[in-house]
Amino acid sequence: MLSERRLEVLRAIVQDYVGTEEPVGSKALTERHNLGVSPATVRNDMAVLEDEGYIAQPHTSAGRIPTDKGYRLFVDKMAGVKPLSSAERRAIQNFLEGAVDLDDVVARTVRLLAQLTRQVAVVQYPSLTRSAVRHVELLALAPARLMLVLITDTGRVEQRLVDCAAPVTEIVLADLRARLNSRVVGRRFADVPPLVADLPESFEADDRPAVAGVLSTLLETLVERPEERIMLGGAANLTRFNHDFPLTIRPVLEALEEQMVLLKLLGEATDSAMTVRIGHENFHEGLNSTSVVAVGYGSGDEAVAKLGVVGPTRMDYPGTMGAVRAVARYVGQILAES
């Protein structure tokens, strides 16, 4: 365990290196920070930090830079994230509230995160499997052909065609629509099947095949696991950090093009906690020079998807974590109110 003073020296090195992009020396530390000790003591503390792998000497200069291990300890020992100003919070709220549908919410969130953090923003669409039913609509396209529209509490809309063996009257369609919604609205997808199992029996024998067909299509929609969707933006921001990537930025960009890599980066959507993975903690070799900050968002207590940012390990962790958390909170509110 490092002493509190050495932790303070490490914090100062991280802050200075993130801010100046230059290796940090003991003289600069004592001039910029009120550490309360002599430069000789700071030099001694830096030597210990280097021996224990928290900082490193990049070349022959006298300065040191944080390692992945140093950034990890800095993040783990952070007192808190940097709060956004009231103006920033208002701007986030106003920008997101202008969205017209789920696609627009996700697109706006990506743009907003990329602008706020000046990193690459990644937003996962809400998963169907973690959603609840907001409404089921049934539309007659032809006498024996219907469209089933499933609307979730997270704003997703799924449409399916239902071909019936015989024509369905508007009276039966309205009756089925009403009974279906009375049973499933507000229910989690996993809870729906037993709630509608006996529905066909409550209709006249001639109408039961059509009712059964609608229910079959609905249940197929509920249990389907469509490919998770991800939206990414702000990749051009990485070009500002060329010197942060040892050889080339290409492996980072190639990794970010892979959908499954992005999903793994964000982690399990049901986990709403903030996660920060630094450098070699990232499983993908192309991302070993980056850090990922991600958090879950949702319309209730449970996360339905995740969002986050990818940037160089030399990032403003308190500021980035504060922005990611604030945006996630507002997106959750928008989904809850939509």
Short synopsis of the structure:
By secondary structure, the chain is of the alpha+beta class. 43% of the residues lie in helices and 17% in strands.
Task: Give me some keywords for this one.
43% helix; five-stranded antiparallel sheet; single chain; 338 residues
Task: Describe this entry's structure for a reader.
With 338 residues, this protein is an alpha+beta fold. The chain has helices spanning 4-20, 26-32, 39-51, 68-76, 86-97, 102-117, 170-184, 192-196, 208-223, 250-256, 259-266, 317-337; strands at residues 55-56, 65-66, 120-124, 133-142, 145-152, 157-163, 230-233, 275-278, 290-297, 305-312. A hairpin with an 8-residue loop joins strand 1 and strand 2 (65-66). It is elongated and about 90 Å long. The two termini are 48 Å apart.
The coarse overall form would be elongated
- Average pLDDT confidence is 88
Helical fraction equals 40-55%
The neighbouring-strand order within the major sheet is 7-3-10-9-8
Distance between the termini: 48 Å
What is the CA-atom radius of gyration, in angstroms?
26 Å
